[in-house]
Amino acid sequence: MKLSKEQLQVIDQHLKDRKVESWDVRYEIVDHIACLVESKMEDGSGFNSAFTKVKMTFTFRYLLKMQQDKRKALSKLLRVKFVSDFKGSIIEASFLLKMGLLFLLAILMYKYASVDVLLGMLLVILYSPTFFQAKGMIKNYKLYGKSMLVSSAWVQLLSIPSMIMCPFYISDVLKDKYAVVILALILCFVPIMLVWNSLLLKEMKKLKEQYFLIYE
Amino acid sequence: MYIYTMSNSKLYKGSLATIILKLLSQQDKMYGYEITQKVKGLTKGELNITEGALYPALHKLEAEGVLEVEVMRVDNRLRKYYKLTEKGEKETVSKLAELEEYIKNMQVLFNPKFGLE
């Protein structure tokens, strides 16, 4: 006898209650437990009784360790993917053009008086995509747990100094010969953030598709 | 809880990866529960692989690139199938040769005529 969606959700909820959050660990273990429950139900037992018997013999305690190991492996995989994606991105013509235009804008900012307006525009251009990407990640992180956000935190943190620097720049504190250098550094963080965020979103989309295969 | 038998589990622990590789070399792809049942069936219930031993071993082999996975929807749920990669096929040959050598040496050592007794 095959389990219904509702019965599978009972098993999944049980794993969540035991702090097994990672989706890719859960779906594999849900399948394993479901097979055990189905085999127990063959002798005529009901779902609840079969599941209770399985819970008594199943070794749940290793799952948290397994989840931790999988997260580490995923972080490593993402870092490797990021390096290759980043290398691929920076040699693309569109990327070089975009960065060239941004540097041109930075020089214009330094040269002309209407710095505030140009800087405001630059900030919107640079941070709008990052903002929407971050919003998408926060919305979807529950599918995978906190690991994705935690592993990406270091990249996000890089953007904070640049965000702090910009208001200083607006108030002319740094409006000297180093301003262009500082702005150039700020611009360097942007491609890192964009490539990293897009990689995470791609990974999350994949997980979400798998998730909805069964739960929606 | 790890792999266990009626006798001594420690003797089998080191062979778990080889057992998995051998089974996968005989079948195109297998999922976790299927592996446990296959081992149980072949050994007539003498050898049981617990999930606490099986999944970490499968994930380790996957991370090493020895196994690859295929996710399929089966009976309202997702099922993760494991299969050997090209590297895994080579690894299986070498692991089996290693195990055969081990068994041969053990037989020599414990043979009543020529061994330790």
Q: Give the second-level CATH assignment, the architecture of chain B.
A: Orthogonal Bundle
Which oligomeric form is depicted? heterodimer
Major sheet of chain B: order of its strands?
Answer: 2-5-4
> How widely separated are the two ends of chain B?
33 Å
Envelope shape of chain A: rod-shaped
Strand content range of chain A: under 5%
Number of spatially distinct domains of chain A? 2
**Which residues of chain A sit in consecutive blocks of at least 5 with pLDDT less than 50?**
none
* Alpha-carbon Rg of chain A, integer: 24 Å
Count of discrete alpha- or pi-helical segments spanning 4 or more residues of chain B: 5
Largest sheet of chain B: 3 strands, antiparallel
- Order of helices and strands of chain B, N to C? EHHEHEHEEH
- Percent helix among the residues of chain A? over 70%
What is the C-level CATH assignment of chain B? Answer: Mainly Alpha
* Chains forming the largest contact: A-B, 26 and 20 residues
Order of helices and strands of chain A: HHHHHHHH
Which consecutive residue ranges of chain B, at least 5 long each, have pLDDT under 50? none
Reconstruct the topology from this structure.
The complex is a heterodimer of chains A (216) and B (117).
Chain A: H1 5-17, H2 23-41, H3 47-57, H4 62-90, H5 93-111, H6 115-140, H7 147-170, H8 179-215
Chain B: E1 4-5, H1 10-13, H2 16-26, E2 30-31, H3 32-42, E3 47-48, H4 51-63, E4 67-74, E5 77-84, H5 86-110
Antiparallel strand pairs in B: 1-3, 2-5, 4-5
Description of the molecule:
The complex is a heterodimer of chains A (216) and B (117). Chain A is mainly alpha-helical and 216 residues long. Chain A folds into two domains: 5-60, no CATH class; 69-215, no CATH class. Chain A is 82% helix and 0% strand. Chain A contains eight helices and no strands. In chain A, helix 1 (5-17) packs across helix 2, helix 5 packs across helix 8 (179-215) and helix 7 (147-170) runs antiparallel to helix 8 (179-215). The model of chain A has no long low-confidence stretch (mean pLDDT 71). In chain B, helix 2 packs across helix 5. Chain B is globular and about 60 Å long. Chain B has one domain: Orthogonal Bundle (Arc Repressor Mutant, subunit A), CATH 1.10.10.10. Chain B has five helices and five strands, in the order E-H-H-E-H-E-H-E-E-H. In chain B, the strands form two sheets. A three-stranded antiparallel beta sheet of chain B has the order 2-5-4. Chain B has a two-stranded antiparallel ribbon with strand order 1-3. Chain B has 117 residues and is α+β, with helices and mostly antiparallel strands. In chain B, strand 4 (67-74) and strand 5 (77-84) form a beta hairpin. Classes of the chains: A mainly alpha (216), B alpha+beta (117).
